[in-house]
Amino acid sequence: MVDILQFEFMRNALWAALLVSIACGIVGTYVVVKRIVFISGGISHSAFGGIGLGYLLGINPILAAIPFTLLSALIMGTIAKKIKISEDTAIGILWTVGMALGIIFINLSPGYAPDLFSYLFGSILTVPASDLIVMAGLDAVIIFFVAVFFKEFSAMSFDEEYSTIIGIPTHVLYILLLCLVALSVVVLIRVVGVILVIALLTIPAAISRFFTDNIRNMIILSIILGGVLTTGGILLSYMFNLASGATIILLLGAVFIIASLFKRRKPA
Amino acid sequence: MNGDDIVSLKNVRVYFEDVLILEDITLSIFRNEFLAVVGPNGAGKTTLLKVMLGLIKPDTGEVRVFETTPEEGRKYIGYVPQLTSFDPEFPINVFDVVLMGRYRGLFKKYSAQDRKAAESALETVGMLEYGDRQISKLSGGQQQRVLIARALTREPRLLLLDEPTAGIDIKMEQSFYEMLSELKKKMTIVLVTHDTGVISTYVDNVACLNRRLYYHDSKEGSLEKMEELYQCPVELVAHGHPHRVLRTHEDG
C-alpha cells in the first residue's frame, strides 16, 4: 500500500482528496441544511461553460471556471427575485444554458480538446500540482468566509425571515453562500467532474446529519467522511482500474445507504 | 399619532401579484394592550404582521412603528412566527435557537451576557431543562415556547405572535395564556389566529380581519362581525368555550 505513494500522481491525488474534503465538508453542510441542492447542481453544471471558455481562450479551464461559476451563482441568486419566475425554473434554464455554452466554446476552439472527459466526470489521478494550488487557495477563501459569517450562515439557514428581522443581511449573505458553492464546485471539478460534483456536496453532509444535531460537528464529520471516502474511492479505482470520480461516488452512495439503515434501528 | 400608539397603520393596502390581500387597514395599537386579531385562513393575518415588521411593503398607506419606520422600529419587536417558518430537522438545539435572538450584528460574538439572557428567557417560558434538545424533538407547544423565548431575549416592547395556539391542546392553552398575561405586564402583545376559541379572558381587544379590518374595543362588539366574517354563528366556531368569547371586557 505504501509503495503506491511513490508515484507523484498518487500523492497529488491524495492531496486533492484532502482539499476536496474541506470544500465539500464545509459548503456541503450548508447545501444540505439550507436545502439548496438543486441550485448547487445548477451552478456546478453551468461551470462547464467556464471549462469550455478556458479551452477557447487557451487558458487553464479550472481558472476560467472560477469567474464563470461565480457569475452564474450571482445570476441564480438574483434572477428569481428580479424577474417573476420561480427559482427552480431559473435554475433549470441556467443549468442547461451554461452547459450549452461550454459545448459551443469547445466547438469553436481550434483542434482537439484534450482532457475534456476528465472535466465532465473527474479524474483525480491526473490532477496536476498547479491545480492543487488553485484548489488550496479556494479552500482558504471558503474557510475564511464561513469562519467570519458562521453565525449568520447558520441563522439564515435555519430561519431566513427571522434572520432578516434581527438584522442579518440575508440577501447579500445568501448570494455569498452561493458564491462559496461556486468556488467549491471549482475545487471539486478535477476530482469528480461537473456532472458528479453535487454528490460530494450532498452525500458526506447527509451521512453526517444522521449522527449529529450540531452544525459545527456536522461540518467536522463531513470533512472527515469526505476525506476518508474520497481516499477510499481513489484506492478502489486504482486497484480495480475504474473511473475514479464514479468509484468515489458509488462508495459514498453505499456508505450513505449503510448509514441510513444503521440510523433507522436507533430510536429517534 | 398620539404618544400611546406604538403601532399605527393608516389606509394600508397590500396586493400580492394582482390579488388584494389587505384593504384599507387603519389600526392603532396602544401601549400595554393585548390585542387579538381574528380571521379565517387566508384573511391576511400573517401579512398584517409582516407589514408591521417591514417585511412586506404596503402598496399604499402609511405604517409607523414606535414612531419610526417598520425597519427601524422592529428592533423593539419580538416576533414569534408560525411553527412552519423554520425547518424542524435543522441541526440546532433549543439553546442555540434562543441565543439567535441575541444577534447584534456582523462580527459580534455572542457574549456571556447573551447566554445568560437566553437562559433566563428559557426559564421564563419554562423550557430551561430542554436546552440541549434538538428542536424537532419537542411538542408543538414546547416549540412555540422556544420561539417566544427567542423573541424575549431581545427585550421587546411589542410581542407579535402568529397562530401561537396551533397544535396546542386546550389544557396547554390555559397555561400558555397565563404565561402571556404575565408577559403582558411588561409589553404590548398582538396575537393573530384563525381560532376564535383563543379569545380568552386575557385579551383586552379583538379585531376581526378578513382582508378588511374591523377593530373593536370590546369583545361583544366584535362578535357580530365575527359571525359576518365566518358566515356562521360564533358559538359554533368557538365550540368548546363560547363563554370566553361572549364575556364583555370591563374596559369595553
Question: How would you characterize the overall build of this protein?
Answer:
The complex is a heterodimer of chains A (268) and B (252). Chain A has 268 residues and is mainly alpha-helical. Chain A contains 11 helices and no strands. Chain A starts with 7 loop residues before the first helix and ends with a helix. The longest helix of chain A is centred in the last third of the chain and has 42 residues, at 170-211. Chain B is an alpha/beta fold. Chain B has a domain at 5-86 and 160-246: Rossmann fold (3-Layer(aba) Sandwich), CATH 3.40.50.300. In chain B, 32% of the residues lie in helices and 24% in strands. Chain B has 9 helices and 9 strands. Chain B has helices spanning 45-53, 70-73, 94-100, 112-124, 140-152, 170-183, 219-230, 234-237, 242-246; strands at 5-16, 19-30, 34-38, 60-65, 77-80, 158-162, 188-193, 205-210, 212-216. In chain B, the strands form 2 sheets. Chain B has a 6-stranded mixed beta sheet with strand order 5-6-7-3-8-9, sandwiched between helices. In chain B, α3 runs parallel beside α5 (140-152) and α4 (112-124) packs across α5. Chain B is globular, with a radius of gyration of 18 Å.
Layout of helices and strands:
The complex is a heterodimer of chains A (268) and B (252).
Chain A: H1 8-33, H2 37-57, H3 61-82, H4 87-108, H5 116-121, H6 129-148, H7 150-158, H8 160-165, H9 170-211, H10 215-240, H11 244-265
Chain B: E1 5-16, E2 19-30, E3 34-38, H1 45-53, E4 60-65, H2 70-73, E5 77-80, H3 94-100, H4 112-124, H5 140-152, E6 158-162, H6 170-183, E7 188-193, E8 205-210, E9 212-216, H7 219-230, H8 234-237, H9 242-246
Parallel strand pairs in B: 3-7, 3-8, 5-6, 6-7
Antiparallel strand pairs in B: 1-2, 1-4, 8-9
Helix pairs in contact in B: 3-5, 4-5
Could you name the ranges of chain B where pLDDT drops below 50 across 5 or more consecutive residues? 231-252
CATH topology name of chain A: ABC transporter involved in vitamin B12 uptake, BtuC
Question: What class would the helix/strand composition of chain B place it in?
Answer: alpha/beta
Helical stretch count of chain A?
11
Give the N-to-C terminal Cα separation of chain A: 40 Å
What structural class do the secondary elements of chain A suggest? mainly alpha
